[in-house]
Amino acid sequence: MNDINTDNIKSQMRKGVLEYCILSILNNNDAYASSLIAELKDASMIVVEGTLYPLLTRQKNQGLLSYRWEESPQGPPRKYYSITEKGKELLSEMDSAWNDVVDTIAQIRNNKKQ
Amino acid sequence: MKKVVNVGIGGRSFVIDEDAYQKLDKYLERFRERTRMGVQTGDVMEDLEQRIAELFSESIRTGQEVVNLTLVNKIIAQLGMPDGEAAEDDFSSSKKETTYNSGYAVKRLYRDPDNKSLGGVCSGLALYLNVDTTLVRVLFFISLFMGGIGFWAYIIFWIVAPLATTATQKCEMRGIPVTAENLRKYSIYK
Questions:
Q1: CA gap A99, B27 in Å, rounded
Q2: What is the phi-psi region of residue A97: left when phi exceeds 0, alpha when psi lies from -120 to 50, beta otherwise?
Q3: What angle do CA A16, A63, A92 make, to 5 degrees?
Q4: Which of A23, B18, B45, B109: disulfide with A91, CB 3.0–4.6 Å?
């Protein structure tokens, strides 16, 4: 019972910041879905890949992302995602919101120790 | 020896075992149902299929010629569902199926516009009762010569039962769940 709860909380936390992670990764460089997945998996942000596709489509339709088709050395062209100006604006807002959260948590934890 | 199927997915073509094909097809259908993004679902499915094609060709390059059930199972476990849940191991299990059906499916009597010879009464009735349309037609025809009860019954059915015009009504007429997949199926032909 306890295990299930902690797992659930952990996955909820990850879900909350997943969209933020996608924007951050794409802000560093453009990526196609598979390399995005690899990066998020390395960071153990996602367990199953299926979560990502609805998010990408939603962000694309909100105008935060755009994509282009690019030739690949093997197989058909790949879909490269990149961040838009609107996405960058949202990202900078999220950056400061994230810093606030981290600061607040740090404060709460420090208070408890003293 | 196994029967294989040729499929096109994500712009590439693959040879796939028939059982593996069935499993993949069911998985894609469930993924589509659970995506719940309306018109945007097509984009999501396109990305997903591209990824599947990529994973297929990675494995095929390592010597294996035909996509088999083991590979499909592995990929389904890796991809999971849009809400982050793992895909159920066997989503054709009868228990799941029945609870699903009883939860969503409603069956109503409609007149069937797709398979009618007069008013669609016999066809609609046949779908409602799960019997052959021809059998119902023959019975009605015979009853015409037995005091005309059949004639009046037909007229009453014609007046009482509405014509199934929308895809939702066509699903209800067949008693199948009103899902995106089924709606798509019945909105194709008028």
A1: 40
A2: alpha
A3: 55
A4: A23
Of A11, A47, A53, the CB nearest to B47: A53
Chain B contact for A73, CB < 8 A? no
Assigned token pair, B98: 């029945």
Is the CB of B54 less than 8 angstroms away from the CB of A34? yes
CB distance A49–B43 less than 8 Å?
A: no
Q: B150 touching A, CB under 8 A?
A: no
In the beta sheet, which residues pair with residue B9?
A: B12
Q: Cβ separation of A51 and B80 shorter than 8 Å?
A: yes
Q: Nearest to residue A58, comparing CAs of B81, B75, B47?
A: B47
Q: Are B47 and A57 in contact (CB under 8 A)?
A: yes
C-beta atoms of B84 and A74 within 8 A: no
Q: Are B37 and A57 within 8 A, CB to CB? A: yes
Tell me, yes or no, if A75 comes closer than 8 A to chain B by beta carbon. Answer: yes
| Helix or strand run (H / E) with residue A94 | helix A85-113
Q: Where are the beta strands (DSSP E) in A35-103?
A: 65-70, 78-83
Whether the predicted pLDDT of B31 surpasses 80 = yes
Show the tokens assigned to B62: 């390592």
The tens digit of pLDDT for each residue in B152-187 reads 888 888 888 888 888 778 888 888 877 777 777 777
ipTM: 0.77
Predicted confidence (pLDDT) per residue in A45-77, tens digit? 777 888 888 888 888 888 999 988 888 777 777
